[in-house]
Design a protein that fits this description.
This protein is α+β, with helices and mostly antiparallel strands. The chain contains five helices and 13 strands. It is elongated.
């Protein structure tokens, strides 16, 4: 008789994830492989999802002599970005590295950093983003995002510098956990049909967090790093 074992820990996942809410996760903008098989190792069962946003890291730099003036001109430029974002569909401004949050100029988190290589120079890093629409040309959306960054009015001696390539973000990847687990279960049923129902099949590590890889301009592949183990097929082989 076939046996499918799921770790007991997998039954207690929902509460912790739900309590955390939906976080917006940054996906690095590294070069996408030309071949699926060149991508980092992933399990057999995965789930393709469109990203929620295309993102561009930007740095606002100002070298006015007075520190207060530097801060004032950078904040004014951020206000210009926020105002312009509201007038453009799907555009927004956030801050953060691994996790993104909306920019709030009233928060203490909006702090100027001093450039150690340039005297009398301050900067702040933020993220410009556009809601990804899979029905539109991705290249045009990237152009819109870059135009938003480059075309915003800058105050005083402030510069807006693009940092790195276009990246992606996804909101709440853990919400897709049970969609992935459902696909894993369906795959295991097919495995049993192929090898015989007398084998013992165990599935483990379903308690692992959802992981992801970028596999297209606006596409992510989500997965759980699970394992499948097949034991004791003696009855099926007749031994």
């Amino acid at each position: 008789m076939r046996k499918i074992f799921y770790p007991l820990a997998a039954l207690f996942l929902v509460g912790g994830v739900a309590a955390q809410g939906l976080e917006e996760i940054v996906v690095t903008g590294t070069r996408i492989s030309d071949s699926y098989y060149d991508a980092p190792s992933m399990p057999a069962v995965t789930l393709a999802k469109e990203a929620d946003f295309l993102i561009q890291n930007i740095r606002l730099v100002n070298d006015s002599r007075a520190p207060n003036l530097r801060r004032e001109e950078i904040i004014t430029t951020i206000e210009n970005l926020l105002r312009r974002a509201k007038s453009m569909q799907g555009m927004a401004l956030s801050y953060g590295t691994g996790f993104l949050e909306p920019v709030d100029l009233d928060e203490v988190a909006v702090q100027m950093l001093e450039d150690r290589q340039r005297i009398d120079t301050s900067y702040i890093n933020v993220v410009a983003k556009i809601e990804f629409d899979p029905k539109r040309d991705p290249k045009k959306q990237i152009e819109d995002l870059r135009e938003f960054v480059d075309g915003t009015k800058k105050a005083g001696r402030t510069e807006i510098l693009r940092q790195g390539d276009i990246g992606l973000s996804i909101v709440g990847p853990e919400q897709y956990r049970y969609e992935i687990i459902k696909k894993i279960g369906a795959e295991n049923t097919r495995v049993l049909e192929a090898i015989g129902s007398n084998c013992d099949v165990s599935v483990g590590s379903l308690e692992n967090r959802v992981q992801w890889q970028r596999t297209g301009i606006g596409e992510l592949t989500l997965y759980i790093d699970y394992y499948l183990q097949i034991d004791d097929c003696s009855q099926a082989t007749g031994s």
